[in-house]
Write a structure and sequence with these properties.
The structure is a single chain. By secondary structure, the protein is of the alpha+beta class. It has two domains: about 150 residues, FAD/NAD(P)-binding domain, CATH 3.50.50.60; about 180 residues, D-Amino Acid Oxidase, subunit A, domain 2 (D-Amino Acid Oxidase, Chain A, domain 2, 2-Layer Sandwich), CATH 3.30.9. It has eleven helices and 20 strands. It starts with 6 loop residues before the first strand and ends in a 5-residue tail after the last helix.
């Protein structure tokens, strides 16, 4: 592995899809800029980018006017364009969001309202019969169909971004953790350990689960704190994959930034079921955060449900069977897991929008959960707009 440079104009911390897209955007704007990407792992896209359902979201769920709403719709269009240009496998397979019983129709109405306000292309309401035409094994009292929702391997997108950067002269240094941040006169230093450091005129930190720690080291407030959630997926056995043609989602709880147990077809043909959403504290500092306990008191019933889903295939299959009745415990086999870096406020609020904050000579991506991968190119533009003045 290459050694990190001692000096540069711009250092981007994090070799996930957002960090790589930020480096690409700023190099395109300023071709003469000396940029380096620093990634802790031994390859890019090992975090949230590489362990998710691989869905290019259309922008239905997000509150109109939020960053998620605006950047998701823009980003999805650009993601499809990038994949077509680079020859990356993807598919506009479509998605149905299913109201399982009449009590969910009000929430479905709200999702439809949001989707139309966000100008999601092609969104339409489905009757039970129309739902069965699209997904013959799915049942519900109504559904929303989003034909523009699609699937891709975001890790493959990230690898293409990294190749493009390196071919253009921007090094992507793997195996290089930013353990600390030091503010100095006219520059910022990223400390790698064993005395090594990279000094930059400006830094953009897209550090996932380490975002809060590095932001605080750079002088930012402690709020919000990253408290990771572990999400595990199962696969349907190959002979049962015919039960799902595209993407089938339940109507989510609008008070939570999670979408519930869903069935997703992937670009390799596999169908996953999940995820679970279990709090995965890294250390005592996560448990000591006041927001952790306030969140736990508020959502303990939801937490018990997630624990049941995590420990019992029967419970997980039963959740999916509410809208695909033929799914049973014997249809599931071990899949994959990832960690979602979720920002949590001191008051116990799960932050439901992208958060980008600023300190002297640095920008910090403090919250970038789903749909950050879908939104990567649009989010990178927003970050670049805010970073450019620090490079003058």
């Amino acid at each position: 592995m290459a050694a990190p440079p001692g000096e540069c104009d711009l250092a981007v911390v994090g070799g996930g899809i957002v960090g790589l897209a930020v480096a690409r955007e700023l190099r395109r704007r300023r071709p003469g800029l000396d940029v380096v990407v620093l990634e802790r792992a031994d390859r890019v896209a090992t975090g949230q980018t590489g362990a998710n359902s691989g869905v290019i979201h259309a922008g239905i769920y997000y509150a109109p006017g939020s960053l998620k709403a605006r950047l998701c719709v823009e980003g999805a269009r650009e993601m499809y364009e990038f994949c077509e240009r680079e020859g990356i496998r993807h598919e506009r397979c479509g998605k149905v969001i299913v109201a399982r019983h009449p009590g969910e129709l009000g929430r479905l109405d709200e999702l439809e309202r949001r989707g139309r306000a966000n100008e999601v292309p092609g969104l339409r309401r489905l009757s039970p019969g129309e739902l069965r035409e699209l997904e013959p094994h799915c049942r519900g009292v109504a559904a929303l169909h989003s034909p523009g929702t699609g699937i891709v391997d975001f890790a493959e997108v990230a690898r293409a971004l990294a190749r493009g950067l390196e071919e253009g002269g921007t090094p992507v240094i793997t195996g290089c953790a930013a353990e600390g941040v030091e503010r100095r006169s006219g520059e910022i230093a990223l400390v790698h350990g064993a005395g090594a450091e990279t000094r930059a005129r400006f830094a953009v930190l897209c550090a996932g689960a380490a975002a809060d720690r590095l932001a605080v080291a750079a002088g930012a407030p402690a709020d919000p704190r990253i408290v990771p959630f572990r999400g595990a997926y199962h696969y349907l056995r190959r002979e049962r994959e015919h039960l799902v043609r595209s993407l089938i989602y339940p109507v989510p709880d609008p008070a939570l930034p999670f979408l519930g147990v869903h069935l997703s077809r992937h670009v390799d043909g596999r169908v996953s079921l999940g995820p679970t959403a279990l709090l995965a504290p890294r250390a005592a500092r996560d448990l000591a955060w006041p927001g952790t306990w306030r969140m736990a008191r508020r959502w303990w019933r939801t937490g018990l449900t997630e624990i049941r889903h995590a420990v019992s295939r029967r419970a997980l299959a039963a959740a999916a069977a509410e809208y695909v009745p033929e799914v049973g415990p014997s249809d599931l086999e071990r899949g994959f897991a990832g960690v979602r870096a979720q920002a949590l406020g001191r008051d116990g609020t799960l932050i439901d929008d992208f958060v980008v904050s600023e300190t002297e000579r640095a920008l910090h991506v403090r919250n970038a959960p789903s749909p950050a991968a879908t939104s990567a190119f649009a989010l990178a533009r927003l970050i670049a707009d805010r970073a450019e003045p620090g490079l003058d």
